[in-house]
Write a structure and sequence with these properties.
With about 350 residues, the protein is an alpha/beta fold. It has one domain (about 10-345): Aldolase class I (TIM Barrel, Alpha-Beta Barrel). About 30% of the residues lie in helices and about 15% in strands. It has helices at about 35-45, 75-90, 150-165, 180-185, 200, 205-215, 240-255, 280-285, 300-310, 320-325, 330-335; strands spanning about 10, 15, 20, 50-55, 95-100, 115-120, 125-130, 135, 140, 170-175, 220-225, 260-265, 290-295, 315-320. The strands form 4 sheets. The chain has an 8-stranded parallel barrel with strand order 3-4-5-10-11-12-13-14, surrounded by 4 helices. A two-stranded antiparallel ribbon has the order 1-2. Strands 6-9 form a two-stranded parallel sheet. Strand 12 (about 260-265), helix 8 (about 280-285) and strand 13 form a beta-alpha-beta unit. The protein starts with 7 loop residues before the first strand and ends in a 27-residue tail after the last helix. The structure holds 2-Phenylacrylic acid (8OZ). 2-Phenylacrylic acid (8OZ) binds next to loops.
Amino acid sequence: MTSLFDPIRIGDLSLSNRIVMAPLTRNRATGGVPNAMTTEYYRQRASAGLIITEGSQISPMAMGYLDTPGIYSPAQVAAWREVTEAVHAAGGRIVIQLWHVGRISHTSLLPDGAAPVSSTNQRANAHTFTAAGFLPVSEPRALHDDELPDLIEQYRHAARCAMQAGFDGVEVHAANTYLLEQFLRDSVNDRTGSYGGSIANRVRLIVEVVRAVCDEVGAGRTGIRLSPLTTFGGSAALDSDPQALYGCLIDALAPLGLAYMHLIEGETGGARQPEGAPVLDYAALRQAFPGAWMINNGYDRDEGFEAVACGKADLVAYGRLFISNPDLVRRLREDAALNALQADKLYGGGAEGYIDYPALA
Ligand code: 8OZ
């Protein structure tokens, strides 16, 4: 029977166990650049089989919250290099999540007060965290089709920066109502032309982005994150047919040979089977995907063991448990007590609730 503690090879990466640190936004990268605290935070968690960094914007226009890190400038590359070297020295593996928020942003966070960009001109029903506190997101501007090649180049550039920073790979963030999902869902994407309308058109941008990223870093170092059933607090309604949509997307991704699929089951941070949401056939989606299958969303120790033992997943990503337990792998192995999460210290602030959670003696 396979255990969470068994090693696994995914694409080009050899992982020492199947316990993954999920991507977690912490808003402590002042000015968009990681710092010494960032390095310490990830170093403390290097016993994870794989660390996926917090979402990191691929360009200045990709940012949607205060003090999230980027991965496009020389200063960011140099700062992330400190992180990857610390994690590698501690025996860990780390990939960076490539993020474009699309319309989940505010003009005050964007260059020259620009409007956020999206698949649509429709504003999201969402708030974001700015220098002036929580504010409703701004009205977006729909990207023209002829701007999309440049957007894809921004992903490619960020992927190249990730390699220069010493990451083991990248994860394309196509979940949680951000830009790539804004193209995917018919509840948001109201375009005509090659990137709107049919399912085949709505999956097009994601596939083009993933191809460019694979081209840059290798498919064996590329993963993708999807969330077929999340509304992220009502930021976007579900697609009218998630099974068909995500089935088509996975069929289009399958030939690329990605290292892994990171699937958020249900409502991000909430129920894995949200009330009123369709019941997805995840097994059918998984069957169509040749790479490793990573699941996420509130799994505890027993559920994680069970999912890997019964073959439902190859890897389990833990978010909140990794925030409060830097040595989560050891604690799960020993069935030790877990530190409580300081929920008021998730976003922004300093060392407290970030790098001061104790490891076992
Ligand atoms: C929480 C707060 C801000 C951003 C995601 C990047 O959910 C996020 C995020 C989460 O993917």
